[in-house]
Amino acid sequence: MAGKTNEFLIVSKSILPEAILKTAQVKELLVKGDAATINDAVERVGLSRSAFYKYKDGVFPFYEASREKIITISLILENEAGVLSHVLNFIASVKGNVLTINQGIPLQGVANVSISIETAGLADTPENLLAGLGEIVGVRKIEIIGQT
Question: What's the predicted TM-score (pTM) here?
């Protein structure tokens, strides 16, 4: 369809059909060099070549789809000195570029913070960025609320 742009969704792996999950596995084997050819990769995961070719252009890992983009995350932080500072320091440590920060007034001991991060220079995947943020003491919840 001429003029139509690709639209993307973030979908949980748990609801995807097996052929799509296996297509992602094949692509990962090829990217990591664990399989030399498409034939080798599809045989390893138990997927037909035709299914792979049907889905290959529409299946991307989250980190690939969000590279060189801006993600906006919402965090619920405990209202304690230094928690936001630790969050920002962690983002900087993985080379994330913070574009905006919005923090609401703390209520009932927690504050809602939204941060927009440019992912082009990340030293790691956005998935690992989020996992690392979740390990910071005082971070109660993280959610992706936007992506461009």
Answer: 0.57
